[in-house]
Amino acid sequence: MQNRKVCVLCNLKPATKRGIKSQAMVLCASTSYNVEFVEPPEGAAVGERVTFPGFDGEPDDVLNPKKKTLQVDLLHSDKNLVACYNDLPFTTSAGVCKVLSTSDGSIR
After folding, report:
1. What would the mean pLDDT of 71-97 be, rounded to a whole number?
2. Which of 1, 2, 63, 68 makes the best surface tag, with the fewest CB within 10 Å?
């Protein structure tokens, strides 16, 4: 992961995992045989917010896992390797976020 850009879900409720406090999750697409990072497009700024066409609201400060506000079963990579929420692409000012080779994978 060193010296590369990845997409991160960073408004999670803090949790301690293996003795380390975590407040974010790196997004990866996976199938039964492959796992790879969701990557922003070339030219996307570090820290830039990913948006989805038609959703203009502000993100929750902290996602509450008990409210199930994010339907993770709707996160996936499509046949064109684009990372999607439902069928809407993860979008930055520089374009859409993609995976290298995992089509039709679930994103977690």
Report:
1. 91
2. 2
